[in-house]
Design brief:
The protein is α/β, with parallel strands linked by helices. Helices cover about 30% and strands about 20% of the residues. It contains 7 helices and 13 strands. The strands form 2 sheets. It has a 7-stranded mixed sheet, with helices on both faces. Helix 1 packs across helix 7 and helix 3 runs parallel beside helix 5. The two termini are about 35 Å apart. The structure holds adenosine-2'-5'-diphosphate. Adenosine-2'-5'-diphosphate binds next to helix 1 and helix 4. This is Aspartate-semialdehyde dehydrogenase. Its EC number is 1.2.1.11. Homodimer. Catalyzes the NADPH-dependent formation of L-aspartate-semialdehyde (L-ASA) by the reductive dephosphorylation of L-aspartyl-4-phosphate.
Length: about 350
């Protein structure tokens, strides 16, 4: 890449934004310049980038001129307001919020699953929900091989999914409880320390949470297959890092557990750790910082004709957010798609 390439991270002071900077550096993303943006509150502060530091600049509508790719993780409201200005300035946005995911103008991409969807982008590309990403990295090879009819998933999601404030809440409440103080609930409606909450994001009219419906709707969009039915229960657990998922899959054709293990161990982005006799299975505490999505506990569901059970674990801040976004940026470069065809698509 001889051309100058300027990359921005929007939300650079947050838990995911920091991981995005780390991921860009770790993978030696070929940027000639990296800029860090956050709110006015953080302007002038420093964030680490490899061995150096970047000075955080205040995000404003007119900052995107001359920036080729901006990776956003600053909440839906910030993306709603600023991503159209970025695209209008010719800057390609990879957005980690849920703001643009179901917008027909925006591809929703997991690079191991549907990279071809990038071809027709209009300047804003959406990064899927963390729980959806890891589930689909594991389910894509199965869907291709035998067809997936229905998925029943229960998640065990870490507090880092709520950002820096989620991490602080679990730490503070744990200290409070050990010090015989009443834990203060600032972020979650109930105590998260030594508890589990069957409630992530807001409740909708159908009594599912928004997080649960993201898994249902995003799967259909990413697989580009409305025949795949997903029903989810999303649960917040007192774990700092790493989401786990218990996934039941009903397939069109039969796949044995052994066939599934072999298939998944050869698939991109996946690692199978599955040896019950040796007590080997993936766990959030042991995979923090890893790029791979881990699968274990693969079993045939003996209650139906064609079914599999499995346990899927990934670092939600890494593959579930920062890494997936950086992989999208890498794919854009590889496919020579770092350009905005029509700068007015999102300005109407
Ligand atoms: P700031 O630190 O200045 O508030 P997290 O999800 O870990 O809480 O991080 C959220 C990120 O989004 C932070 O970097 C935060 O910056 C940034 N952010 C929040 N609101 C805005 C905004 N209006 N403009 C720019 N960045 C924002």
């Amino acid at each position: 890449m001889s051309k100058k390439l300027t990359v921005a991270v929007v939300g650079a002071t947050g838990a995911v934004g920091r991981e995005m900077l780390k991921t860009l550096h770790d993978r030696q993303f070929p940027a000639t310049e990296v800029r860090a943006f956050a709110s006015a509150r953080s302007a002038g502060s420093k964030v680490p980038f490899g061995d150096t530091e970047l000075t955080v600049q205040e995000l404003k509508e007119d900052v995107f001129e001359g920036i080729d790719i901006a990776i956003f993780s600053a909440g839906g409201g910030t993306s709603e307001t600023f991503a159209p200005h970025a695209a209008h300035a010719g800057c390609v946005v990879v957005d980690n919020s849920s703001q643009w995911r179901m917008d027909e103008r925006c591809p929703l991409v997991v690079p191991e699953v549907n990279p071809d969807a990038l071809a027709d982008h209009n300047g804003i590309i959406a990064n899927p929900n963390c729980s959806t990403i890891q589930m689909l990295v594991a389910l894509k090879p199965i869907h291709d091989a035998v067809g997936i009819k229905r998925v029943v998933v229960s998640t065990y999601q870490a507090v880092s999914g709520t950002g820096q404030k989620g991490l602080e809440e679990l730490e503070r409440q744990t200290r409070d409880l050990f010090s015989l103080r009443d834990p203060e609930c600032k972020v979650y409606p109930y105590r998260i320390a030594f508890n589990v909450l069957p409630h992530i994001d807001v409740f909708l009219d159908n009594d599912y949470t928004k997080e649960e419906m993201k898994m249902t709707n995003e799967t259909v969009k990413i697989f580009n297959d409305p025949s795949v039915k997903v029903t989810a229960t999303c649960v917040r657990v007192p774990v700092f890092s790493g989401h786990a998922e218990s996934v039941n899959v009903e397939t069109v054709k039969k796949m044995t557990a052994k066939e599934c293990r072999i298939l998944l161990s050869q698939a991109p982005g996946l690692k199978v750790i599955d040896n019950p006799r040796e007590k080997l299975y993936p766990m959030p505490a042991y995979i923090a910082g890893d790029d791979e999505t881990y699968v274990g506990r693969i079993r045939e569901d003996e209650s139906i004709e064609n079914g599999l059970n499995m346990w899927i674990v990934a670092d939600n801040v890494r593959k579930g957010a920062a890494l997936n976004a950086v992989q999208i940026a890498e794919e854009l470069l590889r496919r020579d798609l770092v350009r905005v065809k029509d700068r007015n698509v999102f300005m109407a």
